[in-house]
Design a protein that fits this description.
Helix 6 links the parallel strand 4 and strand 5. It is globular and about 50 Å long. It has helices at residues 10-13, 32-43, 64-67, 70-75, 93-106, 124-138, 151-154, 160-170, 184-193, 204-213, 227-234, 241-250, 254-265, 282-296; strands at residues 16-19, 49-52, 84-88, 110-113, 145-149, 174-179, 198-201, 218-220. Helix 10 (204-213) runs parallel beside helix 11 (227-234) and helix 12 runs antiparallel to helix 14. It has an 8-stranded parallel β-sheet. It has 2 domains: 10-237, Aldolase class I (TIM Barrel, Alpha-Beta Barrel); 240-301, no CATH class. It is an alpha/beta fold and 301 residues long. The two termini are 19 Å apart.
Length: 301
């Protein structure tokens, strides 16, 4: 296994981060009290940081103006900026750079930067140019950027050749890649070639094997309710319980499924999602809870 103490600081700074779900009040605004309490709980259960407004957090559905007070709201409730990774979505270079720059100025642990995703099938060269211009627009304060590879949602793959070029041009500004593509061939090549930066695996089924090849950890949606299990995988140890857990969650829309489980086992307020997502029906929620509890109760390897 790759020595986790060498390479970019993000390898250890964000070895394991929960891709936090976002609780909402009836008006659709963020329930900051529940959000911060959830973050504090996760930070006591093995998370080096928590990730705000990623895919699991429905960040693309949350207005930029509502997101803007993240650091002040969380700090007032005991979660410091340096414990937060923020996912940034920006179709234009200037919008993405402005959001990333604000997060960096606030003292975030890192910025998780999605590629542009409106125009379909862009060339690798075009995506490379977008990332390059965005990083240039952030300016000299740019740091700790994690590129987000999730092509099943964005329609864009962060090309490995492009990644290598960006690293040559921007050096330590590129702190890592979050790979949620679920393509083992890509994950394997990414981990082997970039073991000196933070390679954070979003597919928990591939996580332990990727860590043994050089990946540093995960930004995990399942860590919202199974942080210790995901932590075991981040240590490079296989655990067969993850197969049943993934099977239960992936048989349904993932974000509503995670929130349904949290709503059933923690607090009903967690089940609410923003359109276009829809909450799971009560009968399906009960079935999901039974499937997850059975999987997690299994005997670990």
């Amino acid at each position: 296994m790759t020595n986790q103490t060498t390479g970019h600081p993000l390898r250890t700074k964000i070895g394991l981060s929960a891709a936090m779900t976002t609780p909402f009040i009836a008006s659709g605004e963020i329930d900051w009290g529940r959000y911060a309490a959830h973050a504090r709980n996760l930070l006591t259960r093995g998370m080096q940081a928590v990730t705000a407004f990623g895919t699991t957090g429905e960040g693309i559905s949350i207005p930029v103006a509502m997101r803007a007070s993240l650091y002040e709201q969380m700090a007032a409730r005991g979660v410091q900026p340096g414990q937060l990774v923020e996912c940034v979505y920006g179709l234009s270079v200037s919008d993405a750079a402005a959001q990333a720059g604000r997060a960096i100025e606030a003292g975030c642990a890192a910025v998780l930067l999605t590629p542009p995703f409106y125009f379909k099938d862009p060339s690798e060269e075009g995506v490379h140019a977008w990332f390059s211009r965005t990083l240039e627009a952030i300016g000299p304060s740019a740091r700790d950027i994690i590129l987000y590879n999730i092509p099943q949602l964005t329609g864009v793959t962060v090309g490995l050749d492009s990644l290598a070029r960006l690293r040559r041009t921007f050096g330590a500004v590129i702190g890592g890649v979050k790979d949620s593509g679920g393509n083992w061939t890509y994950t394997e090549k990414l981990a082997r070639a970039n073991a000196d930066i933070a390679v954070l695996v979003g597919n928990e089924g591939h996580l332990a094997a990727a860590v043994r090849l050089g990946a540093s950890g995960a930004i995990s949606g399942l860590a919202n309710f199974a942080p210790e299990l995901v932590g075991r995988l981040v240590s490079g140890v296989d655990d067969p319980r993850i197969e049943g857990l993934l099977r239960a969650v992936l048989a349904r829309p993932v974000v509503p499924a995670i929130k349904a489980y949290m709503g059933a086992t923690l607090d009903p307020a967690w089940r609410e999602v923003l359109p276009p997502l829809q909450a799971l029906a009560p009968a399906d929620t009960a079935k999901l809870v039974a499937e997850i509890d059975t999987a997690v109760a299994g005997v670990a390897a």
